Amino acid sequence: MIPVELLLGLSTVLFFIGFFGFVTRRNLIAMLISIELVLNSVDINFAVFNRILHPGELEGFYFSLFSIGINAAETAVAIAIILNVYRRFHSDQVNSIENMKL
Amino acid sequence: MEYNFVFLILLLPALSFLVLGLAGMKMPHKVAGAIGTVVLGTIFCLSIYTAYEYFIGQGRGADGLYPHVTAFNLTWLKFSELLTFNLGFRLSPISVMMLVVITTVSLMVHIYSFGYMHGEKGFQRYYAYLSLFTMSMLGLVVATNIFQMYLFWELVGVSSYLLIGFYYPQGAAVAASKKAFIVTRFADLFFLIGILIYSFYVGTFNYDLHAMPTLHEQVAGAAVMLPVALFFMFIGGAGKSAMFPLHIWLPDAMEGPTPVSALIHAATMVVAGVFLVASLFPIFVEFAPEQLHWIAYIAAFTAFYAAAVACVQSDIKRVLAFSTISQIGFMLVALGVCLPDPHTGAVAMTEEYADVQGLGYMAGMFHLFTHAMFKACLFLGAGCIIHAVHSNEKEYMGGLRKYMPITHITFLISCLAIAGIPPFSGFFSKDEILVACYNFSPVMGAVMSGIAMMTAFYMFRLYYVIFWGKSYYETHINEGAHKPHEAPLTMTFPLIFLSIITITCGFLPFGELISANGIGFHTHINWTVAGTSVALAIIGIVAATLMYKNEETPVADKLAKTFPTLHRAAYKRFYMDEVWQYVTHRIIFRLISKPIAWFDRHVIDGTFDFLAWGSNEAGESIRPWQSGDVRHYAIWFLSGAVALTLVLLYML
């Protein structure tokens, strides 16, 4: 069986890769992909902790599935926003919409 | 009881005020005036009917007293189980008498104003204010409790303010109205404090011992603080009734239209203080007789002071104003010289008490009644004269008896009444006052007799300089002086009506209707006192005749030249206005108000200014953190989360 540390290490690495991408990338699509990575790391955590803490039960797995479903919806909304930003500002760069602040 | 209609007495003038105040500008003058006058006529009839029903129709109750009828009483505010604030309508002998006085004078003033205010701008507004005033004054006299009285007390104050400032484009009228409002309001502060002390210790706002059987016990329980409360209430009354040194607003209040002076500043509102003391009379006599005598001393001094000033004023309305102050002094002296019964220490229920120790009560009320009639007549007469010569100053008058016969006769009747010549009404009431004063102490009696002589002198001085003496019109006819003419019928009718009352009302059996303990007694004339006072009045009149009847006035001029300082001081009202000016501006403003204003501006405002400045600065300094870049926020968010995690892991 794969040791827990390895699985949690994978999810941590995934989280920080995602976060690094979110902070460094300026392209909105790339930032969206980074967020997906962060969320995937969370899904892994759910599954791992379900397996080590409550073996035989399924809440964690179901919650992972639920989270994936929400992710899909969130991605759809985010892409719609990005498309609208592109139409409005003719750019997919995040600093192009800084002027939305007061 | 049969007094279900009395609410109309308050409601009708209130409605007329609303109608005239809101829709008056769209009405022609005549319609607005007619509405006001018809309403007043209606409540005049209702008041007369009430008085008839009260004194004759229902008559005395089984205990031989006129019942104090509470026609209605609504609870408005409930402070506690015991302390409630009611609005109601109470008929007692003095309030019924006041209803008659107020509606009579007010009706006459309404009719008179048709002529006097003819064509004035703001005619409808004027009638609206008159309605407001009448309503408030009626509410004051029928109050069932001291708080209701205070409420209407302030309302008469505000209507007086509005009417004094009626000619608001003139600076003098504005200044006078402000002065009247501030001075009376200052006095009313003491009234309010008195009410609060009274209600705190007694536990009710009710003051009528006849209407509330348990009240006597409650009042007796508060006997320690009661004199203070009553004296504070009297200060409020002194402000409205222009007692020294709070009298300064009344002469200036003559800036208002003359009929208003007749109604408010001679006949009705200024006697509110007298009415207040009379309402509280049983409590005063039993629990604060000392304070009652202080009132008498203050009032006697005021009467003397005002009479002295009235002797030298040149503006005829000012003379009448000081004469009013002096006469109100007489009324308050009459109330103040009443004594408790030597055996019981309170109001005794015997006829003898009403006739001896309590005589001043009846005398004061009687004088209030007669004075209202003849002083209103004098003021309205003065209005006719001012209307004819277009000035208040005596230099522009003189010799008017040929041009204004009706005004002349009615003015003369009123002057004789105020001087105390029989058989005019003033003789009877003033005689009773003097008898009451002699009952109190011979010194007080002698002083008041002396003031009565001064009254006769200054009133006849006024009469002679207006109607006799050198005629301004005849001496200035070549310079295009305006020919004086008699006033129209709307103005002379009230004069005639009021002078008829003045002639006849002295014969009213007043002691049978109103007395200190409610028991009727037969008034009799004390011929020693009456003879002396008539003789003194005649001396005063003769002196005035010798000094002022002829075209030249050598004696008067010589006197003024011999005592220039005294004459000037009296003309300047003994510098009382200057004293107040000094006290308010130099002492109160400089030493109290300025430091308080500084404290307010620098300490209180400063604290809040600092808080506002601090928040503003803090906001400015953290503003750049809101970069609008979502990635910055993510970094901060992560840092926060990591920091929290570390704290949770290692610190706890």
UniProtKB/TrEMBL annotation, chain A:
Q: Name one Pfam family in it.
A: Oxidored_q2
The alphabetized UniProt keywords are:
Cell membrane, Membrane, NAD, Quinone, Translocase, Transmembrane, Transmembrane helix, Transport, Ubiquinone
Q: Describe the family membership recorded for this protein in Swiss-Prot or TrEMBL.
A: Belongs to the complex I subunit 4L family.
Q: Where in the cell is it found?
A: Cell membrane; Membrane
Which parts form a coiled-coil structure per UniProt? none
For the keyword Thylakoid, the answer is no
List all membrane-crossing ranges: 6-23, 28-49, 61-86
Which species is this UniProt entry from? Hoylesella shahii DSM 15611 = JCM 12083
Report the top EC class in one word: translocase
Source lineage: Bacteria, Pseudomonadati, Bacteroidota, Bacteroidia, Bacteroidales
Its biological purpose: NDH-1 shuttles electrons from NADH, via FMN and iron-sulfur (Fe-S) centers, to quinones in the respiratory chain. The immediate electron acceptor for the enzyme in this species is believed to be a menaquinone. Couples the redox reaction to proton translocation (for every two electrons transferred, four hydrogen ions are translocated across the cytoplasmic membrane), and thus conserves the redox energy in a proton gradient.
**So what EC number does this one have?**
7.1.1.-
Please give the subunit comment from the record.
Answer: NDH-1 is composed of 14 different subunits. Subunits NuoA, H, J, K, L, M, N constitute the membrane sector of the complex.
GO CC annotation, single: NADH dehydrogenase complex
Its recorded reaction(s) are: a quinone + NADH + 5 H(+)(in) = a quinol + NAD(+) + 4 H(+)(out)
Q: Which NCBIfam families match?
A: PRK05715.1-2
Protein name from the UniProt record? NADH-quinone oxidoreductase subunit K
Sample GO molecular function, one term:
NADH dehydrogenase (quinone) (non-electrogenic) activity
Task: Provide the membrane topology annotation.
Answer: Multi-pass membrane protein
Biological processes per GO annotation: ATP synthesis coupled electron transport
Task: Establish whether keyword NAD is in the entry.
Answer: yes
Gene it is expressed from: nuoK
TrEMBL record, chain B:
UniProt keyword annotations, A-Z: Membrane, Transmembrane, Transmembrane helix
Its domain of life?
Bacteria
Q: Please state the protein's primary subcellular location.
A: membrane
TM region(s), chain numbering: 6-24, 31-52, 94-114, 126-144, 150-168, 189-207, 219-239, 260-285, 291-312, 319-339, 359-389, 409-428, 440-466, 487-510, 525-548, 633-651
Q: Which InterPro entries match?
A: NADHpl_OxRdtase_5_subgr (IPR018393), ND/Mrp_TM (IPR001750), NU5C-like (IPR003945), Proton_antipo_N (IPR001516)
Pinpoint the NADH-Ubiquinone oxidoreductase (complex I) chain 5 N-terminal domain residues.
76-127
Short name of one Pfam family for this protein?
Proton_antipo_M
**Protein name, please?**
Proton-translocating NADH-quinone oxidoreductase chain L
UniProt source species: Hoylesella shahii DSM 15611 = JCM 12083
